[in-house]
Amino acid sequence: MNRLSPPPASAQLVSHAVDWAITTRRSIRAFLPTPVAQEDIEAILDVARFSATGVNMQPWHVHVLTGEVKARLSRAITRIDNDPASAANHADPYAYYPHQWKAPYLERRRAVGWALYGLLGIDKNDRPRMHAQHGRNYRFFDAPVGLLFTIDRSLGEGSLLDYGMFLQSVMVAARGRGLHTCPQASFLKYHTLIAEQLGIAPEQMLVCGMSLGYADPVSIENTLVTGREPVSAFATFHP
User: Fold this and answer.
1) Is residue 119 domain-resident?
2) What is residue 7's predicted lDDT score, i.e. its pLDDT?
3) Is residue 67 scored above 90 in pLDDT?
4) Which residues span the membrane (predicted)?
5) Pick from 61, 223, 237, 89: which is nearest to 155 by CA?
6) Alpha carbon 122 to chain centroid, angstroms
7) Beta-carbon contacts of residue 81 (< 8 Å; ≥ 6 apart)
């Protein structure tokens, strides 16, 4: 794609298409088994590579998992995750979430959690079902494609900002092709196992995982739509 090419449609149509792709991106937690063509996966990554990046560092590396490789990794993680003693030996490579939650972030976290469990009919005291639902992360919510993103450990925090823009580009490009995604920090805990299974070099650190595929339109969990604060709540205009 020519980065200096004119828009493919009127400015209004382009604006609507971009806005639609961003606002309809949601975390989908149930996927159809419909395969995603490799050409589409490559096209999504081909677009995302143009994400903003400080001094053109391009700190991203993507591991694309399908078929038996994805299934084998899912089985390996699930075996450990279902064994509390084994799971306790694993920890995230970096602090994605705060060590101490405070308002309003704690309330937002709780709201989305109880909304999801409410849709699924899982009581807040039903630990086994909560664990089983969380464990679906490690099957990529049955999506046909699993993505795992790594970064060179020597890079600084600024490169993680670049990475966030890259991840958003992946998700928006997926929406433009009628696909859905679910970014997943849950894989971080088992980064050493993932590295072992996929032969990831020690100097690479796991950033997150992501499910990619076609959303199951009849799964109740996919009706979850989280709210967002209005612009007036987070923007300060200085005239």
Assistant:
1) no
2) 87
3) yes
4) none
5) 61
6) 23
7) 87, 135, 138, 190
| CATH number, domain with residue 206 | 3.40.109.10
User: 176: closest CA among 68, 6, 43?
Assistant: 43
Q: What are phi and psi of 146, to 5 degrees?
A: -115, 135
Assess if residue 77 is contained within a domain: yes
State which H helix or E strand residue 204 sits in.
strand 204-213
Count of helix runs (H) and strand runs (E) in the chain: 9, 4
Instruction: Please tell me the number of Cα atoms within 13 Å of 91 on its side-chain side.
Output: 4
Phi, psi of 147, rounded to the nearest 5 degrees: -115, 135
Q: Which amino acid is at 94?
A: Y
R_g of the chain, CA atoms, integer Å: 19
Structural domain total, the chain: 1
Is residue 2 in a domain? Answer: no
Q: How is the beta sheet containing 61-65 ordered, strand by strand?
A: 61-65, 145-152, 204-213, 180-184
Type of residue at 158: G
| CB contact set of 76 (below 8 Å; sequence gap of 6+) | 193, 197
165 vs 163: CA distance, rounded Å: 5
| Cβ neighbours, 10 Å, residue 146 | 25
Q: What is the mean pLDDT of residues 132-160?
A: 97
- Identify the domain containing residue 219 by its residue range: 49-96+138-226
Residue 176 lies in a domain: yes
pLDDT digits (tens, 9 = 90+) for 12-57: 999 999 999 999 999 999 999 999 999 999 999 999 999 999 999 9
Using pLDDT thresholds of 50, 70 and 90, give the confidence band for residue 238: very high
pTM for this entry? 0.96
